[in-house]
Amino acid sequence: MEKPFFFLFLVMYILTLIGNALVILVIQIDQRLHTPMYYFLKNLSWLEIIITTTVTPKMLNLLISKENTIAFFACALQGYIYFVAGSTEVLILATMSVDRYMAICHPLRYKAIMSSRVCLLMVLSCWLCSFFSISASMLLKARLPFCGSNVIDPFFCDSGPLLEMICADTHFLHALDLAVSCFMLLSSVSVTTVSYICIISTVIKMPSNKGQSKAFGTCTFHITVASLYHGSSIFIYIKPVGSSSMEFNKTATVFNTVVTPLLNPIIYSFRNKTVKEVLRDTLETVQRCLQDKC
Predict the structure, then answer these.
(1) Longest dimension (CA), the chain
(2) pTM of the model
(3) Backbone dihedral angles phi then psi of residue 158, each to the nearest 5 degrees
(4) CB burial of residue 273 (10 Å; 0-12, 13-18, 19+)
């Protein structure tokens, strides 16, 4: 039964890497995509590659090999990278909603406000916030003794199973993890919700149906991606301890680490009119180049 899942997840992993790498490459080389929205999208694609690469290769190894162990340091490092990248993605999704708010609600000031420097600072802020929040929790865990069961039921080193291996009072750490999750997810959801309330109130006042359709069209992809990631993350991490089954957590985690990174390039990029035009032009250029043997 493991081999069909192995080949399924392997194909999905390869397609995820190709899709997100293609998004990054196209945005990097084409001037038409050098805008704040695509700058954030490029960072989102990098995060998707990091998240799925942190978890999927080890999961594939567990499915196909009898070697089902992982060193403690590797386990801790896997969980640390996953949560830093995942938290950063949550915050990046919030910055993308702010970008859409500025573009639609303040179009005349958009280019002046959302400069390349401001976009860089926003992305750096997301990374730093995630780094310090996750580092504090991981450092506190590392100082405690690990003497419980050395068996981890999920397919990667999630925070909950690591806490169960600690032979000390972990109530504070459980509360800290829940607080960090609530802060990251609920703040992102709140910013996104407020941004889109303002966007909707602005769009419905537009006299042109074409303008309304164009404005909503630039937001549809972001809403879809944000809903997928926020929804599954909230089900996994914002809940009382032991309130959901391990099988449900595994399914939701697979969705976050394997399915969502694959869907994002398809939903956000390859269904986007501008990106499709750039891809078509790039492919035509490559084809002409090959024909001319350049």
Answers:
(1) 70
(2) 0.85
(3) -75, 165
(4) exposed
